Amino acid sequence: MRRNLLSCRRHNERLDRDMANLALLNNVDHHDLRIRTGHGAEFGDAISQALIFPTEFEAVAREYPIFFRKDEQDEFQAVALLGLAPEENLFLDGERWDARYIPAIQQRGPFSIGLQRGEDDEAAEPMIQIDLDHPRVSRDEGEPIFLEHGGNTPLLEGMSDALRRLYVGLQRNKPMFDAFAAHDLVEPVSVEIRLNDEQQIDLTSFFTIGQDRFATLDGDALARLNAEDFLRPAVWAMSSLGNVQRLIERKNRIGAAG
User: Fold this and answer.
1) Interval 103-162: pLDDT, tens
2) What secondary structure letter does DSSP report for 42?
3) Crossing angle for the helix pair 231-240 and 219-227, nearest 10 degrees?
4) Which residues contact 102 (CB under 8 A, 6 or more apart)?
5) Are the CB atoms for 81 and 65 separated by under 8 Å?
6) Running DSSP on this structure, what letter comes out for residue 26?
7) CB-CB contact of 174 with 139 (8 Å)
């Protein structure tokens, strides 16, 4: 039987890092593997933006500003703003991520989704893959992936939930932005952030939902967006911008403590 393991990618934005030692996760070969939990730069958490997907907009909007940007293929993608400078994650506090929700792409650690084809070109089935060379993977420390007799641990169940959000969200990403474009909702935004009398940060190359344009949508347009389940993500994206002020306050507080 010939099998083809495919990485799940879109818009040239890889959900998988450059995984040199990728394997299909199973409780025989990987029964003794453990995952180092916690957060930090060594795990790829020193970032100012995290890619996010429609399936997590509600949770993200409670913690972070949501902006849109264009990738190398000129396609829109959504990001959670975590910091105001390159490699600055204002939510990192030692080995702790100080927020109620962590973007799924950062939650997943060494795990990713692969599509495994069966015989006779059967429909590809999503399967969990693991990067055996990822810094979180260990045989000596961390939380186990599998129970003693082969079942999934709570850690793996949580990772599976994050991967499902990514997998479904990836498929809904382009349709969502196509729907926004059909109603001319996306517009460029320039954010001027004044931290004090001497320091100002300008955020450019971002887009957002135009509130004035959104306010002019008629009942039919709102009904179509709602039927496609894209109305709520638009509202969550707009409401999330209130978190910019919280991000400023966090930066000032961390700066004062330092």
Assistant:
1) 999 999 999 998 776 666 666 788 999 999 999 999 999 999 999 888 999 999 999 999
2) G
3) 100
4) none
5) yes
6) -
7) no
